[in-house]
Amino acid sequence: MTSPTRITLDPHRPGAEVPRRLFGTFVEHMGRCVYDGIHSPGHITADEAGFRADVLALVRELGATVVRYPGGNFVSGYRWEDGVGPRADRPVRLDAAWHSTETNQVGLHEFAEWADAAGLEVMEAVNLGTRGVAEAANLLEYANHPSGTALSERRRANGRDEPFGIRLWCLGNEMDGPWQIGHKTADEYGRLAAESARMMRFIDPTVELVAAGSSNHEMPTFGEWERTVLRHTAGLVDHISVHAYYEEDPADPQSFLASGAALDRYIGEVADIIDEVGATTPHGTPIGISVDEWNVWNQTRWNEVDKPRVFTGDWPIAPRLIEDDYTVTDAVVVGSLLITLLRRADRVSMANLAQLVNVIAPIRTEPGGGPAWRQTTFHPFRLTAEAATGRVVPVDVEGARISTARHGDVDAVDAIATVDGDTAHVFLAHRSLDAATEIELDLGPVASADAVVITIPDGGDRHTTNSADAEPVAPASLAVDVVDGVLRFTLPPLAWARVRVQLAL
After folding, report:
1. Would the pLDDT of 457 be above 90?
2. 67 with 121: CB under 8 angstroms?
3. Which of 472, 463, 389 is nearest to 427 (CA)?
4. Is 293 noted as a catalytic residue in this protein?
5. Around 84, how many Cα atoms within 13 Å sit in the side-chain half-sphere?
6. Up-side HSE of residue 134: CA atoms within 13 Å toward CB?
7. Which tens digit of pLDDT belongs to each residue from 399-443?
């Protein structure tokens, strides 16, 4: 057992409101996310449109609020017109982004209806790779204009009388990356994004627009890319994107467990650039940061093993791509990244866990009509999305520190709190691999408290995963005592926990 960890917070302290869009997700036409994921006409649970009811139930349980669609790398070669109209007439095309065949059996209409059933706000991405201003404007007019024009009447003829009313729009995807179809320089993209934004606002002034920031923090153009893009788009866009993926080096698990420190630094640097440029929204407020792709992802295996295999073979429909099996360790890291996002809620306007089903996802399905099931990472996301409401309240942590090779010294226990009325929730990630810690949590007068924890299950280890056959990694009750107004409980090594406190106000 390590030394005790004392956490204090003032539930009356002002803080940023929790953006409900912080709990977004991502569906890309990639691998088995759409086809054989959310959509599988031959499945026993499929509805008349081909969407799986068992997957839909898990999506609702997950509690996501926003869904980014249809890409991702896919969008930079996508013709949105291919996905509307009678399904029998839709063209089959090659998807160069993921070396696959796209059948276009799911497009805007089908996906919007599915998202509505799932309770998700659609965040639509436009193609600024192979297409440009006119095509982005056309899609917006098709989707949002009521009637009376060729494009709006085409939508109505295709079965949607009322506009989709999509408010959130991404201006392209990862345009700084040389892997991106239509890859551009910062000036090229900044000008295109600005002109696309201007045209889209002419058509629908109510839209919210997201400019594409750097693909990751390690891009050689990071920083200067953001500065250039914001100089072009300030006053025209509302958000700029951050994409952040983390993977474990087997020789350095402690740095992986401290990935939240890297995300915190990344967000802080982008916020500083926004302030440096003086970038504001059309309404005069600071541009928000949209972390519209984030997760744990074994990119090394993808780049060195899977990608060479995929990109030299045939052009399959819905191949298995980056279907990572998530461990207990991964779940704790995802929980810690959620803590970071909450802590930065003053600057982070939205965030999307990438992706939703099968592709580095909290929900998996088995090919050939098998079941849907929850990965380990499903649970910290669900528990946080369910509870994090009201305002964010910073906490003070006094306890052990852990030394990491990549991020320096970090707190062994990472924590943040939210307060909504007389209810407080404290979210904690314990990064120690080998020792439990006693927690003393002081937040003033308390009426009651309870907690759940995600940790290594009995008979397992930190590499334990869930599967279609069993889900051993799941939330378990955590005993909490209240002694002299202070909550006391024990966090096992490698654990993520949520504590719910009824305040005695």
Report:
1. yes
2. yes
3. 389
4. yes
5. 20
6. 2
7. 999 999 999 999 999 999 999 999 999 999 999 999 999 999 999
The position carrying tokens 């050689």 is 220
Cα(257)–Cα(148) distance, integer angstroms: 55
- In this predicted structure, the answer to whether residue 1 has a pLDDT above a threshold of 90 is no
Residue 457 identity (one-letter amino acid): P
Selection from 113, 155, 143 nearest residue 203 by Cα: 143
Of 81, 102, 174, 208, the active-site residue reads 174
102, 124, 141, 293: which is the annotated catalytic residue? 293
Residues in the chain, how many?
Answer: 505
* 391 backbone dihedrals φ, ψ, rounded to 5°: -125, 155
- Please name each of the domains of the chain with its CATH number: 5-12+391-503 (2.60.40.1180), 20-387 (3.20.20.80)
**Cα–Cα distance between 34 and 187 in angstroms, integer?**
34
174: annotated active-site residue: yes
- The per-residue pLDDT for range 220-278, each reduced to its tens digit, is 999 999 999 999 999 999 999 999 999 999 999 999 999 999 999 999 999 999 999 99
CB 226 within 8 A of CB 273: yes
pLDDT bin (cut points 50, 70, 90) of residue 393 is: very high
